[in-house]
Every structure is written in C-alpha cells, then in structure tokens.
Design goal:
The protein is of the alpha+beta class and 329 residues long. The chain has 10 helices and 11 strands. Strands 1, 4, 5, 6, 7, 8 and 9 form a 7-stranded antiparallel beta sheet that branches. It has a 4-stranded antiparallel beta sheet with strand order 3-2-11-10. Helix 4 packs antiparallel against helix 5. The radius of gyration is 23 Å and the shape is globular.
Length: 329
Amino acid sequence: KVEVKLPFHEPELRAYLGDAYCYTILGNEIVHSPWIYDKYVDIEYNSINEQIKYAYYDYYDMLPNEGPLIKKYHIEPMPVKDYFGITQIVKKTIDRGEYFVCFWNEYAAINYMLHIDNDEIFYHGCMVYGYNDAKKVFYMAGYFRNKYIHYELPYEVFIKGAILGEHLKHCYTYRSYRVNESFKPVYSNEKIIEKVETYLEKQYDENDSAVSYNICAEREYIKKLQEQKEAGSEFHLQSIYCIAEQKRVMLERIKYLSGLGWKADQYIQLYEELTNEYENLQNMTIKYNAIKRASLADRLIHTLTDLIDREEKLLGEITQSLKDWNYKE
C-alpha cells in the first residue's frame, strides 16, 4: 500500500488532547449524542490560578474501553532504536484500521515545522491516522500554536520524537484506538435531567474550597473580574472562551434532543441568543485587555452577570420540560 488514511473529523470544540483524538476518530456527534459520557458539561473555577476550565479532566480515558472506542495498550519487545521496526509498527496499526497513539518528544515536530533546533524534551501525546510511503510521511493530528491541526511529518522526524519519548530500553509501548462498530448509545432522559440539575446547584469541591463548579463557578469568576478591574489587570480570555464554548456545546445538545422528538424550538432560539452574546463577550474582553477602560469592564461584568441569570432561568425551564416529556424510542 502506498497511502492509507483513516477518517479524520475536525473537533468542533477546543477539547483536551486525548478527547480531541476521540473526536477525530468518532466525529462531533459524540459530544451531542445522549451524553454517553459527562465531559464538557461541567466547568470549574479555581480561585488560586484564577481561571475557568472544563471540570473532571482525564487525559486519555475520556470514553470507557469497549464503549464507542476499543482501546488497546501494546508492548513490543524490541530495541527502541530500531527505526525500521517502529515505522512498521505504526503502519501495521493503521493497516488494521486502528489509530496509533503514543507518548513522544513533541519538539521533534515543533522543530521541523518551525525550522528551529530546540534540544529540549517535551513529553506529550501524538496520534497518527495515516501514512504515505511515496512521500515517506505520517499523517498526524495534534495541537500546534493553540490550534488543533492535521499535518504531515516525515518518517525520520517522527522516529526521532518517538525514540526520545520512550522510557523503556528494550521495548516499545503505544496505544491503538478503533471504532467499536457494535456500540449503540442508549438515551437516558433521567441522566440528562440529573446533569442539568447538578449544573444549577451551588457546588464547591469538598476537598478544596478554592474550587467551585458550574453556575457557582461562573458567579465566583465574576467576583474575580471585579478585583481585576480595580487592579487594572487583564481579564483571562481563555476563561471567557471556555464559558462561551460550553454554551455552544449545550446548544448542540439541545438540537440533538430536538431530533429525538423533544419540543425544543423556543429553547434553541433562546440558547442561540445566549451563544451569540457570549461571542460578543469574547470580543469585548479582547477590547478591554487592549485599552483597560473601566467603563468597558463594568459593561462586560454586567453582561456576563445578566447572561448567567438568564441561563439559570432557562435551564430550570428546560429541566421541567424534560421531566414532562414522555420520551419513547
């Protein structure tokens, strides 16, 4: 075979790396479908690092084994400096219809793409979804300059990163992912109601009082924005982006439920309005960080407070509507 490429789906959201690999393989419907896992629903705020992010982060184990993905861990008894052997392992994995995932030195790819020579070692994950023997390149996916991209990397560059990324001297370790064709997600109305109600609760981490979750996290973050405004500090754009993205995902989930027969037109319209306003909030944050005008910060904080209040009311109505809905498969 000269070239083999497994399906590649562009993730709709800026997922954690291991999750992004799952979207690459399975497509984005997995995040909107009957919430077969609970990621990208909950967010958290940590008053120590002063940032909002998605909660319950788990680097690679987003989905259970034998669920939508079948994952295997492999140990090959071979010297890690066997250049040809490692290349063949990757290609045979792809030929079986499985995606190849391993830890490596990511600077191998960074040095190649930026035409630099950084001899540091940055252990990170990488995924290969295809190869081309004529061009002698692997087709790969990962984050580069904060964007999830797919790119071509010469065999010899990949091997350099793979060897430096190995901790064992006499064997080579990696993971393989493939789609579980027999998996069928089961919709649970009770589970979704529980998740929405949980989002509305006042929640703090029982082991760490600095961490709050969901609506509570958003309100705690507003307090921090007030402090940052008074200090003339920048607002953390990535936190605003995370909140806005979480609303976009919620909108897509509502649309999915609408496709199952739930009468959701009014909720879709209201969430579309919310997501549009959150987009504007991101632009407002960028502008504030550039000019540090107090009146703009006040408008931003007021807008965010209003959006949280509106969503809280909307989620309460959605919860009641889902309870009243007589779902039938």
